[in-house]
Amino acid sequence: xTSIEVRGLCKxxxxxxxxxxxxxxxxxxEIFAVIGPNGAGKTTLLRLLNLLDEPSSGTILFNGAAVxxxxxxxxxxxxxxxxxxxxxxxxxxxxxxxxxxxLRARDEAEESVKRKVTDALELVHLSGFEKKNALTLSGGEAxxxxxxxxxxxxxxxxxxxxxTANLDPKTVSIIEEVLSWVNRKRRTTIVMATHxxxxxxxxxxxxxxxxxxxxxxxxxxxxxxxxxxxxxxxFARLENVFSGVSSVVEEGTSLVDIGGGLRVExxxxxxxxxxxxxSPEDIILSTHPIVSSxxxxxxxxxxEVADLGPTVRLKVNAGRPFVVQITKRSFKEMQLNxxxxxxxxxxxxxxxxx
Amino acid sequence: xxxxxxxxxxIIIVAVAALSGTLVYEHFQKTTEHMVLTTTTSTYDSGLLDxxxxxxxxxxxxxxxxxxxxxxxxxxxxxxGDADAVLVHARELEETFVREGHGVHRVGVMYNDxxxxxxxxxxxxxxxxxxxxxxxxxxxxxxxxxxIVFISRADGSGTNLLELKIWAQLGLQPSNSSNSWYLxxxxxxxxxxxxxxxxxxxxxxxxxxxxxxxxQLKNLVVLxxxxxxxxxxxGIIPVNPEKHPLRNFRTAVAFTKFLIxxxxxxxxxxxxxxxxxxxxPMARNFELASAxxxxxxxxxxxxxxxxxxxxxxxxxxxxxxIGGLLRAVQLIISFNSEVLSITLLSLRVSGTAVxxxxxxxxxxxxxxGLKAFRGKARLINLVNVLLRSVVNTFMxxxxxxxxxxxxxxxxxxxxxxxxxxxxxxxxxxxxxLIMVVPIVIGLTMxxxxxxxxxxxxxxxxxxxxxxxxxxAVLREARIGLLTAVVAAFGAAISExxxxxxxxxxxxxxxRVLTTAIVQETELGRFEVAxxxxxxxxxxxxxxxxxxxxxxxxxxxx
Lengths: 354, 557
Description:
The structure holds 2 protein chains of 2 kinds. By secondary structure, chain A is of the alpha+beta class. Chain A contains 10 helices and 20 strands. In chain A, α3 packs across α4. The longest helix of chain A is centred in the middle third of the chain and has 18 residues. Helices cover about 60% and strands about 10% of the residues of chain B. In chain B, strands 1, 2, 3, 4, 7, 8, 9 and 12 form an 8-stranded mixed beta sheet that branches. In chain B, strands 5-6 form a two-stranded parallel ribbon. The two termini of chain B are about 10 Å apart.
């Protein structure tokens, strides 16, 4: 329930400009994504919004009031917002005490602390973790605890710096669910930095593209995608995103020529230049061709294997490179390796236009 | 958590081992000979016994506890049966003691002597006089003529009694208000000597005190000496075993036999202070001994020689270390109040110093450490660097230097002299406190400064006040803080230089593990030294174990 206005914000570190003339308006109850490559200034911007650093020049206004950086005013503002950092630093205490920290700092009664912590842990699917030491948690669990830590204090403004970077898909989906729930139920304004375009697309109402400390473009995710794709491809997670020419074959179905001799069948009706996306989880990988209702079947070769813990991520070249995500168990059973022959299968409805 | 429990268990085991180390001494005392010797303060102050007794103890495997008091009291204690032998220099009292059946086999050991000193120009003309009585006659005559002054100690001391005895032999009673040449000082020998020097007066003094003051006395020389009446013979008397059957007669005899043995006698004649011999052995000079009041000297010496007093448990030098080791192991299964008191004092002194040191050092170190990563301005950084360097320098403060400084502060001429704290456990705590505070500050500072700055930011971001955020940082540094305290304790308990200077290693009051080890080693009582060493080692091991456990927890965290 906070609106933010940023006017002419600049930040310099040791004579180097990190942010230059940032102007933004983020509406109450909005999820706003800051998209940009590493080093673009996303973290710097979030730290300024979290009032951890003071800008070199420019003004931040919350609900129309300019920020006063005197300690007393700062504390009051800090208590209305909270931030999840990219590199999670949990306190060396048990999970319960970690999550309870913000509430206890506010001298909340222990009874309500207990209730709120229990609720927050349930929200991030970590009930029963109360007694565990926070420093023994896995990366995904730690990030969910960090989120719970922030949620218990019910901030009006939630800042997130790459909240799902390097996390397993299960954790990513839990975090994404929680974020949209909080935004819906509590009308919490959310500002998140990310370089995952599709996360931005799923969650955010609007976004700003930040390049080299400047805002390149502000608008809906669609509008951001209009920026020449080469520029985007240089940083954004654009796996399984292909630009091509679409032509309608019949009602509700189009064929998209994405180059490399590949024509993808998609469940939409569109013609001309399009950009399509296939989720890595939606692609079925097999060692032999399979017969099914799925409309897209391609043969390729494994060119890359990455171990993500419970899942394995493979890149398969079928004329164009596709990223596929499968469980470790399947990976082992299929005895796949780099240079193995593999078949890709996905439905026409898994092909999304962006 | 499982690992933690196991480590706790190990700590408990070590603590039990350390405690059982305090069971050391009793067994030792039960199996070794133990005797009490009473003697006079002046004998003890000469240092002779500290030089002789350890040799005997090592040879015999016995311990000799010495009680140094006035002559009369030394004999009284023995009469009550609280001592095994008396070593004094008062013929009449000694003879009465034997006659009344309290002691047996009185034997002469050695003598020192008295000299008559006076101004160099010697107006009384006694120079070279070997007859003390004659010299006194001349002094009285010159005094009556108003040519000289004689100073008497007039304090009832042995010296004073001898002086009065000589006057009495002359039929003189110089203590008389009309005798202006006879000054009754009522003071110690040293004072009287200084007075005599100022007034160019005559006086009677024991040779030991004379030798030690000689350099300061520009106007005085020895004028008459070597008369038999000026000799001061020392006798030793074992307490009568029939009267006091519980006393350790066997060791008393062994000790006496050692003193009058050829070896013992030679040791006595080799004992010097500032290159001067203080005592002349006489046990084997039967004629002289007899003339000095030991009428049965030849018989008694023969009697002692016939006694077998072989060392039952003593250690020869060659296997002292190995034997000591075995003995120490053996000793660590019994209890003793002295070792217990030494260990407890060590723990109390170092524990108190570390407790106080932590109360001072942790807040300062925490403040400096917190400032360190909040400091923005260059000036703050400069001050930080300077402060850190100072703290780091003081972390390596040599304990002896601290000891010296504290000594100078607390000695009676020092600024805190009136508090009378020197040679107390308080002084030791003060010295260790000064050593420990910089260690605690330094380690606390780096522990706090090494906490990720993200911890503070996370706390602030979660709505913590500055104070709450600082507390969060301190809590993250808690393992480092504990490490600081434990490390300081380890340094304190193993420190010896400072605590020795300000504590003085006084038995039952300021003797701690480290100083006791130094002393026992010097005395050649290796088994006790080793046993104490084992206790200290166990404590140090426990400390390091705690450190390691804490650090491994830190790494895991």
